[in-house]
Write a structure and sequence with these properties.
With about 70 residues, this protein is of the alpha+beta class. The chain is built from three helices and four strands. The chain has helices at about 5-10, 45-55, 65-70; strands at about 20, 25-30, 35-40, 45. It has a two-stranded antiparallel ribbon.
Length: about 70
């Protein structure tokens, strides 16, 4: 298990900011991830910077394929 996977197990609510390619299963954060995320109390947390540390940006097309897999079809 990678550090990123462990982090998501500890904070499953952050999965909404994660993309996974339907073909190759590559995982990364959504490019629209804000610079900072707020906690329930309105304070900012380190969550966004941690997601950027553990994952790379990964955009998906309308059918859930990353750029590389999209080029292969």
């Amino acid at each position: 298990m990678t550090e990123g996977e462990e982090y998501l197990r500890m904070y499953p609510q952050l999965r909404k900011w994660i993309n996974q390619c339907n073909a190759c299963q590559d995982t990364g954060y959504k490019p629209e991830l804000p610079k900072e995320l707020s906690t329930y109390g309105g304070e900012t947390s380190a969550a966004a910077s941690n997601l950027r540390k553990f994952f790379k940006p990964l955009s998906l097309n309308e059918i859930g394929l990353c750029d590389i897999c999209e080029r292969l079809i």
